[in-house]
Prior knowledge:
Low-confidence stretches: 1-9, 207-216
Helix content: 55-70%
Radius of gyration: 17 Å
Distance between the termini: 32 Å
Strand content: under 5%
Shape: globular
CATH topology: TorD-like
Structural class: mainly alpha
Number of strands: 0
CATH superfamily: TorD-like
Oligomer: single chain
CATH class: Mainly Alpha
Mean pLDDT: 90
Order of helices and strands: HHHHHHHHHHH
Amino acid sequence: MPVSAARLTDTISEEDQLRARLYRLLGHLLARPPETETLSALAVLGGDSSELGGALTTLAKLAGATSVFEADREFHNLFIGVGRGELVPFASYYLTGFLNERPLALLRQDMARLGIEREADVKEPEDHVGALCEMMAGLIEGSFGAPADLDDQRRFFDAHIGRWAGKFFEDLEAAKTSCLYAPVGTIGRIYMDIEATAFGMVDDPSAGPGSDEAVD
Length: 216
């Protein structure tokens, strides 16, 4: 991969730290049902007057009023179910209608190139939306050797996240069994738009600066 300024200085900008935190937040909530510690951490999240900030505030309020049992049941209904949940959170399914298809094979090729290894205890395919958010956070933070430059981040996002994750988050936002996870869908939908717009500006600098979104 190309060597970026961030790699040379071994530092990550505050903006990139915030980006990684949002990806980590989404990845954590989509990978497993939230436990007591997670709900407590979510309950003290702060937002601002933006649409994204409002969704964070809503998530905080719901987390403070949701029990571990309720969160676990909602997660199960949404993503596991009896046979399958209300949603199927995999890139292959959203892009082809089937699991374990070409999008997964292409992801595995990029994972090998970028030095991303699947954890031994993970049984589900790597193109799960939660895993992809975790991978994106790791690329930003340098969890796989060194922080990826914007070109590598953009290529990964465009190839494996940008083409479908926005639609998944829209579906999560509107899912019949979503309560705690409805604002998670809102956060994801908005943030995918922010990232797509920002990466578009990397290709077209004349597009001008965008507005920053922050998590307190």
